[in-house]
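We read letters as residues; the fold follows as tokens. Both lines appear below.
***
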Amino acid sequence: GKVKPILATWLIGAVTLDLSSGAYLATGGRVLDNIALFAGAIEISAIFGTLVVRLWLKGELKVALDPLQRKILSAAGVMILVWGVSIMLGVGLYGAEATFWTMQSLMFIAYVPSVAKAWRLQKAFDSIGNWSCIFAACIVGFVPAIASGNPRALFNSWRGLLSAGILLAILLFFDKKRGWRGWKREVVSHRVFLRQVNRWFLRRWPVGV
């Protein structure tokens, strides 16, 4: 079968990373010290947006949440409320700290179902290309985190490296056993998507008109 990225996984990644980034800034953290966090937030939000467009073009746009994913999104919603209340009470820094560490914990927990699913299916069920980009961003972002010595930046970098690295290694292991079929289909799928986007733009803005 085709590689079918799980939209809910990327939705959770976008929500938790975006909230974690905002909370980090609210605690006084500098962007350059924790570049992996902000690069990850932008990257995963972009991947989520791209998947939404791709699925919409194919008429397959839907989000299916399992019980754990519902709990994670609910917890993220609760932390938004907690942070908002803390700001109104004049203790926004504590709310931001709580939100940051809660999102970091949720992001680590969110990887567990993906790792379990890959192991159960014995194949690369998600995008190797996407996870390779995420892992590479974590490696690059680890350098300024070490240089800054910021505990939040260091924790985020270690979490990203371990989480993305373990999942990517499992996806690569099983896809190699299957003759890289998932990776080859993924390359073809990207080419088809780019052609679809190109046709969509040409229909709306014809060249030479």
In short: The CA atoms of residues 112 and 163 lie 9 Å apart. The first helix runs from residue 7 to 26.
